Amino acid sequence: MQWYLVAALLTVLTSSQGILTTLSQSNGKYKYDYATIPFLAELFKFSVSSFFLCKECQSSSPPRMTKEWRSVRLYLVPSVIYLIHNNVQFATLTYVDPSTYQIMGNLKIVTTGILFRFVLKRKLSNLQWMAIILLAIGTTTSQVKGCADTPCDSLFSAPLQGYMLGIFSAYFSALAGVYTEYLMKKNNDSLYWQNVQLYMFGVIFNMGWLIYGDFKGGFELGPWWQRLFNGYSITTWMVVFNLGSTGLLVSWLMKYSDNIVKVYSTSMAMLLTMVLSIYLFSVKATIQLCLGIMICIISLQMYFMPVHMLVELPQTLPVTSK
């Protein structure tokens, strides 16, 4: 499967996630424990990867699997990074409003490019750097509201701690993606074997988070496994399936493509979500959204299109008269 087909499918699934999550609410509230969604999504990814790994093991050419603990333990790191990121994310939202946090989140586009260059040693051309910066500008432009909606100075009214935590949040988000790509490409192990290791730790950490929630709440609602599916509907299951499928596609991109493709896919998904929200939830379209979409499309062209198609170079040097 070509990377651009996976990226397009990832864009569709990612854009559907926010819409499905909104549709799973009842009167603006969740009837289910939303902490169970990541756990079930990780369990789904682990189960699918285990199934395909078993199929590979039964084939005539068994897959390559590195089973030494010193290799397996490396897959614990992304789970730790995501755990730190989630806590920093919640801490950031105590200092800044959601709109400011959403805009600051676009820093991860640039930080991904920086880590992509210095951690993975992948060189980017000047034109590609300009495209990445344009993508960050485009997504930010699409999210900026007019002065009639919110105070124009609200973006700069948060305390310094909020901006520092926002920067750390963007950094950890980019670090998790870049480190996962490093793991996926560090050897020729089977993708499904790598996924099994990655999602095994994801299941463990998310289960630990549910247990922590029980202790924090004093077990007033009972142990988490007894209320795991409470309040679930068909839409809720679609949220789990969508989130799990998105993770599987991301791991494929990390193995056979790179983080920049994922960044573009998720950014385009965000814009697609905003466009669909206009029709599904009667959200008002803004000039900022239109400008942001145009800037992001230009960025997409600049990054992926061959240089000779972007710049018309003369075939021969002009003859100068003496």
List keywords for this structure.
322 residues, mainly alpha, 13 helices, 68% helix, globular, transmembrane
What is the averaged pLDDT score?
87
Tally of DSSP β-strands: 0
| Helix/strand/pairing category | mainly alpha
Helix percentage range: 55-70%
Give a quick account of the main beta sheet: strands, pairing sense, barrel closure: none
Sum up the overall morphology in one term: globular
Quaternary structure annotation: single chain
- Fraction in beta strands: under 5%
Estimated radius of gyration = 22 Å
| Low-confidence runs of at least 5 consecutive residues | none
In whole angstroms, how far apart are the ends? 57 Å
Spell the H/E element sequence: HHHHHHHHHHHHH
Number of alpha- plus pi-helical segments: 13
GO cellular component, one term: Golgi membrane
Pfam families: Nuc_sug_transp
Transmembrane segments: 34-54, 74-95, 101-120, 127-144, 164-184, 196-212, 232-254, 261-280, 286-305
Function: Sugar transporter involved in the transport of CMP-sialic acid from the cytoplasm into the Golgi. May transport important nucleotide sugars such as CMP-Kdo (2-keto-3-deoxy-D-manno-octulosonic acid) in physiological conditions.
